[in-house]
């Protein structure tokens, strides 16, 4: 009837104590329970310690997942919930910051007709028996203020790790999840609101555990960006004005990401160009390729890691870099030709002439790189021959101009 999910990352020292408490608690219950401990890529003996409780907790399963550094607790919860077989799923922190006995408060709300019941530390502060330090409490309040303004209104504590869901009504929420770090709770609640599921917020006992892995600064910054990711990932083209804006941001994400990377590369390009022409007294036509090459290397790194990271590119990294370099050579030739025309033909001041070339070269680079260098396998073969011919034409034009 009820599945309890316990995500555990390097919890060797506390998971045994928590499962001991859970076994005693379950022995007093009439309901059928299954317990799923998700070993969240632990480097210690969390899994081995948990597996020792198979006799005390008959319906215990211990599963292990591996994850990338960008994924967090949310992935463990997600895998555990999707493995669950019962009608109700509850997930709780491995340290039992909220005592397992508080489960009845959540179950009562589900019996009253709510689809989701979530523990809250904010509705009744007297139930918070061990408080966090001032900085963590302040960051939590700021984060919740932002949550209510950007994502989910009316819920005063989205982050308490004690939540219950009716299945299969809530299964789709977990199947649609895209955020797996500390912002995953907010995403689940946002999706639930979009599906018009009824959510009850319940005051629960809570004890701050000194070994908590949430960093008040680093993780708060990450969660702040998660709020915008949630709105973008699940925005509707036909929703509110804000929804439409977030939809366009997500739909056109490679363009503005490429623009941001290009802007940072432009800073490197322009700064180095200024240094080489003003401090080393190189001519603009000599300094320009040097500054551009520095920006090319910078741009490739970040476009590969971020801008087009979601695409499946069929070539190895070194081949992609060579293609990117060749495309950038085309951009350089475009830049050189434009700079020559603006500076030598129209007598425009060199720094202004350089600035005029930037948007044209950026557009050229995006179009060719998105359709060739970082072309997804699902898009089929690119017309790379056309790009080669065009770049060779730019090369020929450059020689005509400088002769």
Structural features, described:
The chain contains 14 helices and nine strands. It is of the alpha/beta class and 403 residues long. The protein folds into two domains: 2-235, Spore Coat Polysaccharide Biosynthesis Protein SpsA, Chain A, CATH 3.90.550; 252-402, no CATH class. A seven-stranded mixed β-sheet has the order 3-2-1-4-7-5-8, sandwiched between helices. A two-stranded parallel sheet has the order 6-9. The longest helix is centred in the last third of the chain and has 29 residues, at 317-345. The mean pLDDT is 89.
List keywords for this structure.
2 domains, 7-stranded mixed sheet, 403 residues, Spore Coat Polysaccharide Biosynthesis Protein SpsA, Chain A, alpha/beta, two-stranded parallel ribbon
Element order, helices and strands? Answer: EHEHEHEHEEHEHHEEHHHHHHH
Structural class: alpha/beta
Number of strands: 9
Instruction: Determine and state the CATH class of the largest domain.
Output: Alpha Beta
- The CATH H-level homologous superfamily of the largest domain: Spore Coat Polysaccharide Biosynthesis Protein SpsA, Chain A
User: Portion of residues in helices?
Assistant: 55-70%
- What is the CATH architecture term of the largest domain? Alpha-Beta Complex
Round the Cα radius of gyration to an integer and report it: 28 Å
Reported by name, the CATH topology of the largest domain is Spore Coat Polysaccharide Biosynthesis Protein SpsA, Chain A
Query: Mind describing the biggest β-sheet?
Result: 7 strands, mixed
Which blocks of ≥5 consecutive residues have pLDDT under 50? none
Largest beta sheet: strand ordering: 3-2-1-4-7-5-8
**Outline type:** elongated
Average pLDDT value? 89
Percent strand equals 5-15%
Number of helices: 14
The structural domain count equals 2
How far apart are the first and last residues' alpha carbons, in Å? Answer: 83 Å
Domain GtrA/DPMS transmembrane: 257-374
Pathway: Protein modification; protein glycosylation
Keywords: Endoplasmic reticulum, Glycosyltransferase, Membrane, Signal-anchor, Transferase, Transmembrane, Transmembrane helix
Catalytic activity: a di-trans,poly-cis-dolichyl phosphate + UDP-alpha-D-glucose = a di-trans,poly-cis-dolichyl beta-D-glucosyl phosphate + UDP
